[in-house]
Amino acid sequence: MSRVRMLTIFYLLFQVLGLFSSVHAILYARTAQGAIAWVVSLNVMPIIAVPAYWVFGRSKFHGYVNALKDTNLVIQEDKIKIHEEFKPFIIHQPEDFPEYLVVRKLSTTPFLRGNRVQLLIDGEATYDSLEKGIKQAQSYILFQFYILQSDETGERFRKLLVDKAGDGVAVYVLYDELGSQRISQNSLQELRASGIHIVPFNTTQGTSNRFQLNFRNHRKIMVVDGKEAWIGGLNIGDEYLGKHKKLSPWRDTHIRIEGPAALVTQSIFWSDWYWADQKLLEDLDWRPQAASGVSADGGQDVLVLGSGPADELETASLFFTTVLNSAINRIWIATPYFIPDEATQVALYLALLKGLDVRILTPRLNDNWFVSNAANVYLSDLSRIGAKIYFYDQGFMHQKVVLIDDNLALVGTVNFD
Questions:
Q1: Does the pTM of the predicted model rise above 0.70?
Q2: Is residue 288 domain-shared with residue 208, that is, in the same domain?
């Protein structure tokens, strides 16, 4: 068989694969725009697009979906008991948030009162708070970060966790396999040797999930004894203390939650751990308690919302759209990556047409040239109809914060893209 004939057959094979992949994209792509983009690529350049589609094009994390179903069956009775214990803290309908019922259906639990929330600005304050929480742990520590580094900061927390494990505290560490690819094997071995339970969040486990490289675990959370939780934008590494040569100083925001909402964060870790280790965590404390010095009907009202590609609905997009549409006076957004989907883009347009104060803060210095230039297109469109666009000039801003009027603040790990 001639070389030309072989190449022709090879190309025709990819054309057929591109055609079948196009049908799959039309049926399962998250958005119409995504489906169109994939269909064009798969038929115009199938040799490149077919492998890319099956690695990056899937919109649902199917293995994790099945894991969630398994855990829900196993702990159905426990979930009912836990929900019963939450009743004294549940807020059924906040007066200043009429869209609450929509958000309630997106979350596993409603808004809970009885919490104390502490705002942590930048790496030093966040790491000091995490260290204090680790040192005060009595029973267990749940430690989950997208990025764990084997640098000075990573060594700081390795020693803290090893010391607590030596004191008899159960320590569970979950890290993303791709995000933490630079963590040294020596560090991992030392953690395991000290009795710490540590596993990677590997999205490609199982034969049907081999190519799910684009599904990462982006969470940055810690839970101590089921009473305190930390959530925000900071991973574990020197760069978050402003030691990165190019992205310095580093601006970020984390929060510490004390109270019943910490248990919701615990449940998110619990589900992630089951996927990663295929084992249920035992001996966790699921009894909700108000923060020290706070009554069950006092303190801050907190809703913890987990989201990801295993969700039945587009949780993050629906949540952002709902809270944006609820705004009466202002929408202030701080995000390192601003590439809104169509729904949130329309919500921002409507807010501007209603005369709301819409402000968007992004970093002028960015760690992703492609994303930064894409964001500028959206920012320019919004600016033309009245949005106030600001660029953070004092280093790299990585915080993910949204303020709605004077009654709702969103702080977390989700980027506005």
A1: yes
A2: yes
